[in-house]
Structure formats: structure tokens, C-alpha cells
Amino acid sequence: MKTLLWNCGQRFLHKLAMIAPGGFSLRPKLHRWRGAKIGNKGWISQYVYLDEIHPESVFIGDNSSIGIRTSIIAHLYFGARKETNPADPVRIEDDVFIGPHCVILPGVKIGKGAVIQAGTVVSRNIPGHALWGPQQNRPIARVSVPLTAQTSYEDFSAGLTPWSMKK
């Protein structure tokens, strides 16, 4: 029963943090109560999704800003959660600016002073003091094994082949 109450409380705080006022005050405080580690003077905009299941795996450094409707995800697993599936921490260093509508995927580290342009999907580590933006809007690889709840990420990855623009 305690776990059910704890999970309900976590989800309530998460939903409240998405709409509450106070980007420097109340929203970061609510996420800290959930377990996220957020440094001093961190700005969390409205409708920011910090991993609902593993907020303790999200680290946001001092003086960093997270733009509106950004999602920070610390886990990727389907179906029933197993205790052997730990979250893969996301680390956002000090003085980072993340623009609106970004997606930060599990295991990513964004270096000190980096700037992430709006709409970027961050799937790998970003060096410090780098301006990082979305790639060209084009196919990257062919998918031969679909990524579904019945497929492992490893099988999906193994089934990718580079996309050739030539026929």
C-alpha cells in the first residue's frame, strides 16, 4: 500500500510541477521533492516532463534553464518494470540552456555552458560550451526490426542499416 500511495503522490507532484507558477522557485522545489537533483538558480519552464518513474536519475546543474515542453527521460523499457532495469541517469551540467520542445534521452550528459536549440532530440553526450541543434530533416537509417514492446532495443539497433539516398 505504501508503494501505491508513494507512486500516486509522485505523479500528483509531477503534474502539479508542470503547471505551477515559479520557474525559479515552486516548480524546481516540487521536482526536488520528487527526487530530482536541481542546482541553485535552475529555471524549469512550464509543461516540462522530468522522468515520471525515475526522477532521482535527473541531475540539473546550477544556473541552468529548461525550456517549455521539454522532456527529460531517464529510462526506456516497455511493459512491466523489473528491478533489474535501472534508470540511466541524465546529467545536465551548470550554465546549460535547453530550448523549448527538446527531448533529452537516457544516459545523456550535457556539458557545462552548452546551448541546445529548440526542438532538438539529444541522444548522445554534448560537449561543454557547444551550440547543439537538430540534424537535417532526412532519413538516417532503415528499420528492419521494429521497436515494439515485444522487441529488445538491442535487436532493434542490430537491425538498423544506413539510409542510402540513391536507389
Instruction: Write down the overall mean pLDDT.
Output: 87
**Rg, please?**
17 Å
- What would the principal axes of the Cα set say about the shape? globular
Which residues form runs of ≥5 with pLDDT under 50? none
What is the topology, as strand order, of the major beta sheet?
A: 2-5-8-11-13
Number of distinct helices = 3
The description of the largest β-sheet is: 5 strands, parallel
Helicity level? 10-25%
Output the structural class: alpha/beta
What percent of residues are in strands? 15-25%
Number of distinct beta strands: 15
Give the topology string: H per helix, E per strand: HHEEEEEEEEEEEEEEHE
Distance between the termini: 58 Å
What does this structure look like?
With about 170 residues, the protein is an alpha/beta fold. Helix content is about 20%, strand content about 20%. The protein contains 3 helices and 15 strands. It has helices at about 1-20, 25-35, 155-160; strands spanning about 35-40, 45, 50, 60, 65, 70, 90, 95-100, 105, 110, 115, 120, 130, 140-145, 160. It has a 5-stranded parallel beta sheet with strand order 2-5-8-11-13, with no helix packed on it. The protein has a 4-stranded parallel beta sheet with strand order 1-4-7-10, covered by helices on one side. Helix 1 packs antiparallel against helix 2. It is globular and about 50 Å long. The termini are far apart. The model has no long low-confidence stretch (mean pLDDT about 85).
